[in-house]
Write a structure and sequence with these properties.
The chain is mostly helical. It is 73% helix and 3% strand. Strand 2 and strand 3 form a beta hairpin. The protein starts with a helix and ends with a helix.
Amino acid sequence: MNISLQNRFGWQAHEALFLPWLGLMCLGWIMVTSASTEIAEFYTGNAAYFSIRHAVYVVLGIITTYAFSQIPMTYWAKVDVFMLLAAVVGLGLVFVPGIGHEVNGSQRWLNLGIIKIQASELAKFAAVFYIAGYLVRRQDEVQQSWSGFIKPLTILGAMVFLLLLEPDFGAVVVLMGAVLIQLFLGGVKAGQFFLLLIATLIISAIVLTSESYRMERLMAYLDPWAPEHVYGTGYQLTQSLIAFGRGDWFGVGLGESVQKLFYLPEAHTDFVFAIWAEETGLAGAAAALGLLIFAIAVIWQVAWKAQQKGQQYAAYVAIGIASLLGLQAVINLGVNIGLLPTKGLTLPFFSYGGSSLLVCCVMVGVVMRIAHETYAVQEVADD
């Protein structure tokens, strides 16, 4: 019995992704705990409120990772189409009164009673599996004809449309970016790929200029210190830059941030990295970023090994997961340091948020499963 349990639940600790993932989870809890004390005290009377909740999410995330690492990739290959349809339905349900939940003017959340789930997180996850399955099932068609290239995009178009209605432009950018990377590495012709890339950029420009608040964010991004922006649309960015500046080389000390004292909004969610940089300086920020980069690099390595062993579906899934995490991290960090306009995207593993953390842990569980199955294939080949 003990041997059976060890075979089922012990192999994860030997995977290359295990320690980086565990480090990210622990570091994220420290970040959230430090950044959220004042806002938690103000709104709930308990300075540890968000810290306790995030600790619960961390425990649930660990359980979730182990649970999803038990699911074979053959199962995902059978249900990826149904996952995509369920994700589209979920995106539609956010507009249903009583089920959808509005936060800061965006209708992005599904109210499930004990927890609120961001529908876009599930949508991105489902899209990665669907594209991976499509590339395997229709590989010749995708590489040789326009119809094979366009078909999956029409289905994803409905998903993008619903995301823009929420609105969640950041999720659209991450989703389309990951899909583009999957298609490119899946062997799509260069002409088709660049045509899709140009079309995506044109549509993004149209969407960006179609709403006044997006244009205001763009103007504030270009000059956040202008008098008309510094206390308005550019306020978050300027306060974030002040946090980075105060951090200097080694920071002001863990828990000693000034910007989290209601100067920087969303200090424990979208801008948690700015608070971390203020408290631990360039050294701490570089260490945290290095750990995240290392974890994503391990996922890319898992994808490459799966590709080498002929596990095409698993390889495409790992590529999609690495792309999702990488793009979301780049956009969040770009917003924090002023390289990109403000977007409501969390930093994977670090920001406070139950649905984001749990979906990240599901992805890690899937990657661990891919690495485990790839290793099993290698052992069989060696024998």
